[in-house]
Request: fold
Amino acid sequence: MPENHIKMKTSLIFSTVLLLFSVGCKPQQYTIDDLPDNQIVFGKGGGIAGAVDTYTLLDNGQLFHTSSLTRKNKELKNIGKKEAKACFDEMAGLKLSEIDFDHPGNMYYFLEEVKEGA
Reply:
């Protein structure tokens, strides 16, 4: 067999394996209508308009924004899996369920951990 034919065949096989590997390792992507069980939900609301801005962070780094005024959902720039993991680790360390916090006002802010089975 000619040497060029062997190189081309090897290159084709390598490219195919690389393509299959990259497709198989792509992290799961979600939509706002189909979210996983583990999330960090945060935002703010109130004021004169009573508007609520909600952000939802997923452990794969996806970030979504929902506005009660426009009633639109939007996927924001992915923050990356490493940064998302740091946020989830920090959230676990806060132990929010142990904190009694009630400070009424015109504006409010919220931070919620959504877990599988909870």
In short: The chain has two helices and five strands. The helical segments are 3-24, 81-94. The chain has a mean pLDDT of 81. Strands lie at 39-46, 51-58, 63-67, 72-76, 107-114.
